[in-house]
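Thread: zinc ion complex, take 2
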Amino acid sequence: MSVLVAPSLLASDFANLEKEVKMLNESQADWLHIDIMDGVFVPNLSFGIPVTEAIKRHAKKPLDVHLMIVEPEKYVEAFHKAGAEVISVHIEACNHLHRNIQQIKALGCKAGVAVNPHTSIALLENIIQDIDVVCLMSVNPGFGGQKFIERTYEKVRVLKEMIRTSGSKALIEIDGGVNQHNAKSLMEAGADVLVAGNFVFSAANPKEVIAQLKAM
Ligand code: DX5
Ligand code: ZN
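Output below.
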């Protein structure tokens, strides 16, 4: 299976969202990554449910919603209604992660757990068989355009081994600072999904950049 590419709309031109989504429809992108920030869990605000709905109206690919928010259980149903296919919550934001995951799955969505750079993969041991995606943060969440954290490679390898030995089917998604210098090594380490914001949207030809990632 070739790697899945999930461009992050956080780096897109918000004044031309319809155009950006249509460009992604025509590209080889697999998922549209939607970054939701609350200014509490992360020190930044992005956009919320109405904008997600607006993206969905034009999108021909699954919406991969990354909730960087506290108390995500209050909002997962609204994001499901807004059109999310994948919903990821942060392990650091959930006191009852198992319950939160069951809630997402009961809505018919794929359930993901996002993990900050400082968080040990070992903490996923008792949830890995229940989830569809691990969103491994390769930057500290809150902003696009940050530098990739090199320790991520080792975390991918540890996580891949945990997935293999547990019999889990979870996909490993890498989020933050993905570019032409690290994409291939990430895939070799075991990444299944690459999120890319600035690398895609700051390129002169975003569709070509997506095609390059797919071909790696
Ligand atoms: C960071 C977000 C990322 C971000 C990725 O908080 O979760 O999805 O938009 O953007 P780049 O690829 O520019 O690091
Ligand atoms: Zn993200």
